[in-house]
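Researcher: Next sequence.
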Amino acid sequence: MIKVVRTIDDMAKVLESKAVCYISGPITGIEDYRERFMEAEQYLKEGGLLPINPAYMPEGLKYDDYFPTCYAQVDVSSALCFLQGYERSTGAAREAKRAKKNKKEYWAFTPPQFVGHWMCDRLQHPEDYDDLRGMSKEEIEGKKKVWIATLAKEGQALGDWIERVNPPKTEKEKQNDKVRQFLRSYLYCQNQIDAACDEILKLDSRRKRITVQYREVHGGCGSDYTEAVIENIKELEDGIVAMTKQLQSERVKVQFWIDALDDFRARNVLTLCYINDMQFEAIGKKLNYSLDHVKRIHRIGINKLREILQEKLFKK
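Model: Next structure:
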């Protein structure tokens, strides 16, 4: 979720949070983009934020090759600073979409809003600044109103842009999400089994380590602890047996509906994605398809499955 700064108080909350702040803005075709990003990085630091500057990445990569790193940086941030020209930047739009998809809260703002908060803060104590000392109360209030209006105007423009690049999902898109969730049931069950197996390995390793330490110190085997761990492992193993049966059932179910597609390319892509747990890039290499072609086939398959599963998944 993205919350847009619209007031002085909003900007104050961002600064008080000491947020990790990702700097987003136009790069392609901007000669002095590094200077712009570095300037933003400097004043964000001075404001107490922890800025992440993507302009440090080397030049020469393919356009799309920059985004895995950019997305990872967005993921660890909790604020987004959009530089001038963001509304014309494809990269900024993609980063805003990434943030909107994440299940966490982001504050979004622009440099004029940051400056507006800074100026209003100075205007609270004009006697401390040579350039403000001697101003009348009317002049101070007038300047405050200008900066408060700037924050509101910038916030409105930024909020409208974020809504445009992240439009609400249509009913069809919501139904496609349900189809993908339905297809992921097999992999979800598999992940639960893997997690239980990992927990068993951790418990058994801890049991052995504690038993050795106990024996060295006390000359015993720590039987009470050992029995408790063994009981936990037994419960996990019983759960794995039950989940394995469910896993087989989920695989048959998912494969059955994938096989209901009459497009063999869609069957191949969806099987590799939802049964073999392969990413689009790996599927493309295996089938000798481009990444865009894999995504297109996947989209076709999901749309057709939505129609096939209409009554099963979406009946009122």
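Model: Residues 175-314 form one domain. Residues 216-222 have pLDDT under 50 and may be disordered.
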